[in-house]
């Protein structure tokens, strides 16, 4: 029998066996089933790895769905999904492939960093300082930090870049690059040169004692250098001269960088609010913010910092992994663990390394959202990535110590047991007590949450979150894992309805008074912002600032006793009341009953435009002045005029809704983004 005939016979035997197992007698029916299966498999293989995992586990549970539907405790649901998954060879193989897959953005030429560094050296010698900065920066980010040779390339590029900053008298930038080079293990035999540069920077900044310490360390390090004895003596002589100069110098106090915006008078118990806002509770609307006094237009009512953030996959190479700021190429820092994570400063890098980054770098979850067919990232709901970060940024023991996490307190932040109690943005009580509409969860939603939790558990095992384990693919959970999985499930439920996008605006689009063209950078949990209820005609405007913060400003005068409202992206200007109700019910599980809905406000094109002639003239004059000042870069003056425009309408008792209120609010928003907002 020929080889071809033998293979055909073997295929027929396999086909016959499969038909018996499937209970199919008609070859044509088997052919149709096999063809449909292959189509499904081909489609599934084009999905990002995370979605393939989810789809595989979903199909697996659906085969014995009645078993899952009979479970009542969420830990039992998760345990059932995990066991089914880990007992299935195909599911385990899908996990392994997802974790071991190549990251398309992590490919780096091993020679590129050295080439860029050498080009930077030539530019520096020719006194082309900006070119040198750019080339050294390219060398920094084209080094493979996952190898020892790559780490060395990176440290050399950082050190050379620090020399340019030193020449330009940018001492803080120089010091930050030096710290990065030291952290990444700059070659020991060359350390003396780097620390000499550090000492000079410290001296220039008036940090005399630190400079002296640094100079003395340089003398000790000369012994480890490759310098000949006579050259070491020259270095010692020069350092001694520098130390002599510093004998009469006096330490200067460190200049604290003041924030570009701050609350003048914060609320004593919730310091993210101004003292003009207090948190209240009503069974009909839940927790909400109330004005304790009249609030003027343009007044800052809230400045909130994120409790947890995560970039979308598409911005991981352009924005800081930790604070989400757009990274400047010439000051950015690479991760010491993975090529595809970057930081805006050493401060952010060190905070990340002390918390979540060692675990996350081992997993590299972003690559699991890569769509091979379309060659782009599939940007999933921020719920997945935010839940992940909310866990990885805290140690396991922190969660084990929180045994009552699921006892949701609707009065959290409203009632305090002591006058000294403070609801800080970093308090995880903000996460544990989120409104989540848990009583409305369907069995399909519970299954989705259980599958995602099981996936999280395997990823955390793989990343070393629980310490060293023989395998990440165990079919059962120990007590610590079961407790953490309960928390993961709980957090997902709350984050789903309470996360916010973090946006930035391309600086090139902020050239005039126009609606800011925002671009999504990532997602965040803003624990104070989420306490505010939605209105389709909110009385505030908010914008993202300083990377991971959000600022809220009064859009009009807010009277004492009035509710402070936010807008969830669904506004009366662009959608009908029916469209808004449908969107809010689907996305946020509530029906809105704000004034705009009750009175069925018209959309923008149908708003009233009539004004008293004198008011219209004054309004138009201010609007033209704003446009002219904006072009001249006088943005603070523009902001002040924007407030005056709104006050003009309010003083004239122009009833809302009105087109001119919206035009003035647009001016206010444009000026705020230009002055304070995240830009790239």
Task: Describe the overall structure.
The chain is α+β, with helices and mostly antiparallel strands and 680 residues long. A four-stranded mixed sheet has the order 1-2-14-11, with no helix packed on it. A hairpin with a 4-residue loop joins strand 7 and strand 8. The longest helix is centred in the first third of the chain and has 20 residues. The N and C termini lie far apart (70 Å). The model has no long low-confidence stretch (mean pLDDT 92).
Shape: globular
Rg? 30 Å
Strand order of the largest sheet: 1-2-14-11
Task: For the record, give the distance between the C-alpha atoms at the N and C termini, rounded to a whole number.
Answer: 70 Å
Look at the structure and give the mean pLDDT. 92
- The percentage helix is 40-55%
State the total count of DSSP E strands.
14
Portion in beta strands? 5-15%
Number of helices: 25
Largest sheet: 4 strands, mixed
Low-confidence stretches: none
How does the helix and strand content classify structurally? Answer: alpha+beta
List keywords for this structure.
single chain; 680 residues; alpha+beta; 4-stranded mixed β-sheet; 3-stranded antiparallel β-sheet
């Amino acid at each position: 029998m020929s080889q071809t005939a033998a293979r055909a016979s073997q295929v027929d035997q396999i086909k016959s066996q499969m038909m018996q197992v499937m209970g199919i007698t008609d070859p044509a029916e088997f052919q149709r089933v096999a063809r449909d299966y292959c189509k499904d498999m081909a489609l599934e293989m084009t999905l990002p790895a995370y979605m393939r995992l989810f789809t595989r586990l979903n199909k697996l549970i659906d085969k014995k769905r009645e078993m899952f539907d009979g479970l009542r405790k969420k830990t039992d649901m998760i345990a059932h999904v995990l066991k089914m998954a880990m007992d299935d060879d195909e599911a385990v193989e899908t996990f392994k492939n997802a974790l071991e897959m190549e990251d398309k953005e992590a490919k780096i030429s091993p020679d590129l960093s050295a080439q860029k560094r050498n080009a930077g050296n030539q530019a520096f010698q020719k006194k082309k300082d900006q070119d040198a900065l750019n080339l050294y920066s390219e060398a920094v980010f084209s080094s493979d930090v996952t190898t020892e040779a790559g780490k060395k390339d990176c440290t050399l590029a950082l050190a050379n870049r620090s020399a340019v900053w030193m020449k330009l008298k940018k001492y803080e930038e120089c010091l930050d690059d030096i710290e990065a080079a030291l952290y990444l293990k700059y070659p020991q035999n060359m350390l003396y040169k780097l620390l000499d540069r550090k000492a000079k920077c410290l001296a220039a900044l008036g940090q005399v004692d630190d400079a002296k310490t640094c100079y003395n360390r340089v003398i000790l390090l000369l012994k480890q250098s490759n310098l000949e004895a006579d050259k070491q003596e020259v270095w010692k002589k020069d350092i001694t001269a520098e130390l002599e100069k510093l004998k009469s110098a006096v330490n200067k106090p460190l200049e604290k960088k003041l924030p570009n915006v701050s609350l003048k008078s914060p609320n004593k118990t919730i310091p993210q609010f101004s003292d003009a806002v207090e948190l209240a509770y009503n069974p009909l609307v839940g927790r909400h913010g109330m004005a304790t006094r009249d609030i003027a237009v343009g007044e800052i009512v809230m400045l909130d910092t994120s409790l947890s953030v995560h970039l979308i996959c598409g911005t991981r190479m352009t924005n800081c992994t930790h604070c989400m700021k757009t990274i400047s190429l010439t000051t950015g820092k690479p991760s010491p663990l993975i090529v595809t994570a970057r930081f805006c400063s050493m401060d952010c890098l060190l905070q990340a390394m002390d918390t979540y980054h060692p675990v996350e770098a081992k997993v590299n979850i972003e690559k699991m959202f890569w769509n091979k067919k379309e060659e782009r990232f599939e940007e999933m709901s921020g719920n997945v990535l935010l839940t992940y970060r909310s866990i990885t940024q805290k140690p396991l023991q922190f969660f084990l110590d929180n045994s009552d996490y699921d006892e949701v307190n609707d009065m959290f932040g409203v009632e305090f047991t002591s006058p000294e109690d403070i609801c800080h943005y970093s308090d995880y009580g903000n996460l544990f007590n989120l409104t989540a509409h848990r009583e409305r969860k369907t069995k399909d939603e519970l299954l989705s949450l259980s599958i995602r939790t099981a996936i999280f558990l395997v990823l955390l095992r793989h990343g070393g979150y629980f310490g060293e384990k023989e395998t990440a693919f165990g079919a059962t959970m120990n007590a610590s894992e079961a407790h953490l999985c309960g928390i993961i499930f709980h957090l997902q439920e709350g984050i789903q309805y309470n996360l916010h996008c973090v946006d930035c605006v391309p600086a090139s689009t902020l050239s005039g008074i126009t609606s800011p063209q925002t671009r999504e950078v990532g997602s965040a949990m803003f624990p104070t912002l989420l306490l505010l209820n939605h209105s389709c005609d909110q009385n505030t405007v908010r914008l993202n600032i300083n990377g991971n913060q959000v600022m809220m400003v009064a859009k009009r005068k807010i009277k004492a006793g009035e509710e402070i409202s936010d807008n969830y992206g669904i506004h009366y200007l662009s959608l009908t009341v029916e469209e808004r109700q449908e969107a809010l019910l689907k996305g946020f599980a509530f029906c809105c009953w704000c004034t705009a809905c009750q009175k069925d406000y018209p959309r923008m094109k149908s708003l009233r435009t009539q004004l008293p002639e004198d008011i219209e003239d004054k309004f138009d004059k201010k609007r033209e002045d704003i446009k002219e000042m904006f072009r001249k870069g006088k943005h603070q003056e523009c902001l002040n005029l924007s407030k005056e425009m709104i006050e003009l309408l309010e003083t004239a008792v122009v009833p809302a809704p009105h087109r001119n209120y919206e035009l003035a609010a647009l001016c206010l928003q444009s000026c705020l983004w230009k002055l304070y907002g995240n830009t790239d």
